[in-house]
Write a structure and sequence with these properties.
6-stranded mixed beta sheet, 118 residues, Nuclear Transport Factor 2, Chain: A
């Protein structure tokens, strides 16, 4: 199951990189719960779609440095680069903790920390 769960996330992440929101959401449950720890929680695939359309106007560039999987849990560690509302490049380190259900992404707890400008 661990290898299968990793493959699901890799396919979903590849869709985000292409700017394919629907391609990402096909890998998610309808009742997806998306939590940005310390910020907010989005409930449901439709709400995540709306958030992504507003926040991923330009697809983020990210790299996963490590994937750790056990049972229905998957942790991705890496860095993500995106642009803020002013077009400024923002770099973040992140740890995404995913729970999968029936082969789909069901819950995200995202821990994101902005990195200093280089």
């Amino acid at each position: 199951m661990s290898a299968r769960n990793k493959a699901v996330l890799e396919q979903a992440n590849a869709a985000i990189t292409r700017g394919d929101i629907e391609g990402f959401l096909v890998h998610c449950t309808d009742d997806l719960q998306w939590t940005a720890v310390g910020d907010s929680t989005i409930h449901g695939k439709a709400a995540v779609r709306t958030w992504m359309q507003a926040n991923y106007v330009e697809p983020p560039v990210f790299g996963v440095s490590q994937l750790v999987a056990e049972d229905d849990m998957l942790v991705a560690l890496g860095e993500i680069e995106s642009r803020d509302a002013d077009g400024r490049v923002v770099r973040n380190a992140y740890s995404d903790v995913w729970r999968l259900r029936d082969g789909k992404l069901a819950e995200l707890r995202a821990f994101v920390v902005e990195l200093p400008a280089t």
